[in-house]
Amino acid sequence: MSNHLIDALKGASARAPERVFAMNAEGAALCSFGELFDGAARLAGVLQRAGVQPGDRVAVQVAKTLEAVQLYLGTVMAGGVFLPLNTAYTTDEVAYFVGDAEPRVLVCDPERAGDLAGIAGDARVLTLDAGGKGSLFDDLGDPVEPVARGAGDLAAILYTSGTTGRSKGAMLSHANLASNSETLRDLWRFTSDDVLIHALPIFHTHGLFVATNVALLAGAQVVFLPGFDADAILQAMPHATALMGVPTFYTRLLADDRLGRDRAANMRLFISGSAPLLASTHEEWEARTGHRILERYGMTETNMSTSNPYEGERRAGTVGFPLPGVELRIMDGEAEVAQGEIGVIEVRGPNVFQGYWQMPEKTAEELRPDGWFITGDQAFVDAEGYVTIVGREKDMVISGGFNVYPKEVEGLIDALPGVKESAVIGVPHPDFGEAVVAVVVPDGSGAVPDVGAALAGKLAKFKQPKRVIVLDELPRNTMGKVQKKALREEYAGLFEPS
Ligand code: AMP
Question: Ligand 1: distance of its center to the CA of 391 in Å?
């Protein structure tokens, strides 16, 4: 029987089921391809006996383990829809997702089972702990055959991080996931010779789909780490070939003296995404390791949409070109902007999701009837076709009626001596509507520069920060994204008359 995504993921590994799929940082085998898929097919049986029918959601809030990867594959084999949840979500937050998605089964850590049973509704609660054990295995039987599922059937619902309003469930089909991983495997040249360091969480599109699916599809091996761990990554590097990370992986590794050319000699590819990589990180990484990081751009709703080239120039500060098969345009409302102008990125292609779960109005707002998805990311395309993201539409500051793109101001501040990084936000202001505020993190080398004076001759007055705040670090989520909403809330009263 044919199951679109599982057939694709299993293909390369089915030819050599005894080959090691996952290893630890020392290189010791953890599980073979055959064991991975066999365990997944047994879990598919467990889910079926727990009542999962094709199309049913299986919500999962568990630590990163190989068993959790098997649960993902097993859900898809059972014809179900995998719904991973950030392990940081509280019971109240999980209650919203469970109420919205009405899963048939909810799998959680045994320590959370008591709390979550109270909000699980009709869902059957099963457990899986950080050691890969739990009641999920109580009813383990023989492997079952994958349930037939076609290209357009749903394989997963991933909730967006919900920085504005309610979190929305992005519905992803078998073909959305399979086609994107195939494109990335080919573009980034993943083969069965690769060993990918897998240190990203698997409740998010980056670690779950980009890293896991690409590795499986290519028949590549993974160094499977429960989370970011500089020691483990540096230990794994000499016997690995690729790393996928968020920008903070790279800045943290750069802070470690052990990182150098020798250690990275066996590596062929370092990929970054999910948040903007500072040009300075790109440059430092090349100086230290001899490798240019390949930056790509995507989001929960679209999988990956653009990538810097494998062979051509990987340009720092840009996210490269649209992926093969993906169309990209830059819009100002209903009209495409002139080349080089800033507007909102729209993408169309087999990567674009099927809409938001049970939110037809939200879907209609963001997904046009002809298939173009309005990403909300603002960018421009240069003469050579490289896409540069300048920020999220909602992060744009409108001061005195003029648009200020945070990235332009951040770029200048970041380049000042003594500055590690910065975040530019808009804060309510009685005269200007919003005022530009710069939150600056010093690099620890000495005095923080006078940002106001340094920018005075470089930027139009309306773009210059009206206030500079110095912090030890910027608030970030687990994917390394700066939480500008938290900063806006924190400093909302800055210009209130006292
Ligand atoms: P998520 O849906 O959690 O993956 O978040 C997607 C958002 O992350 C995008 O809409 C972008 O705003 C941002 N993002 C992802 N990759 C990049 C990148 N390489 N550079 C800048 N922003 C990025």
Answer: 9
